[in-house]
Task: structure prediction
Amino acid sequence: MAAYSEDDLKADLNARGYRLTPQRQRILEIFRAIPQGKHLSAEDLHNTLTQSGERIGLSTVYRTLHLMVYMGMLRELELAEGHKHYELNRPLRERHHHLVCVYCNKTIEFSENQIDQVGKKQANSAGYYILDCQLTLYGICPECGDGSAS
Amino acid sequence: MAAYSEDDLKADLNARGYRLTPQRQRILEIFRAIPQGKHLSAEDLHNTLTQSGERIGLSTVYRTLHLMVYMGMLRELELAEGHKHYELNRPLRERHHHLVCVYCNKTIEFSENQIDQVGKKQANSAGYYILDCQLTLYGICPECGDGSAS
DNA sequence: ATGGGTGCAAACTGTTTGCAATCTG
DNA sequence: CAGATTGCAAACAGTTTGCACCCAT
Result:
């Protein structure tokens, strides 16, 4: 089951006074099509779209990305590459975290129920309404550390 | 006890063929002087330095920041403001995490031993040498959510 | 003295914004 | 039809880089 269908999209947009446009529809499709665990940058997304024959401006991509994050459909990731990445947002319990190698940027995902619990607990005790919970581990992967590192 | 003294700095730098310069010294001082939990952007740091009469280029600030992160003295934080923040790195057990309001950017810190345990465990099982472990919670603070949010 | 480090200014990258034209509800 | 949305190009912000001079070791 996908997290968001086209219908949900239209309903959600309209409910807030926004409109369903082909661009927004296509962007959501792309996110639903990529394998779970893969995340796209704005540029990636734009390339994918134009390569598949779509005519869309980069700024529209950025605007849509923001909108979808704001609406809770997408999750914004700050990994170590100097630009943001996005992926479909999923319910807390299916949410995963990232372990990234600071040398080669290889990223491993993992899930860990405890973390989400802790996150929820902390947010609640501070009176925050929690939107996202990301554990990011920075380290050196076996290949990069291999022998050569001190 | 501070995490890094001037002597440590010189020793560490020299050990790797780098040199101790007044700029690097001053930058470390600043980080040691700010209250725990406060984090500075490159620009913040540069302002602090120039305002205290120091003559230092912004690029040197960036270069030093990178060097110190690379050497493990500083920790690089990706909060929600569109630019990176830095703080003194501390041993795992003293490390803290962040809860940030996506509306007003107010940030709350908290420590949680469990998280660091989980992080270490995950990194180990993937064969990564762990450098940093950051749980970042995004949410809406009581003031911003106050009544108006659904 | 030697080669790492610095400041400056110019280059770059990712992202945002103003605006006229276009399309959705 | 009104107002939301788009594409384009120009503007931006933060960060990086080339280079000549300078200073720790």
Strands of chain A lie at 74-77, 85-88, 97-101, 107-110, 129-140. Helices of chain A lie at 6-15, 22-33, 42-51, 58-70, 113-125, 142-145. Chain A has two domains: 1-90, 91-150.
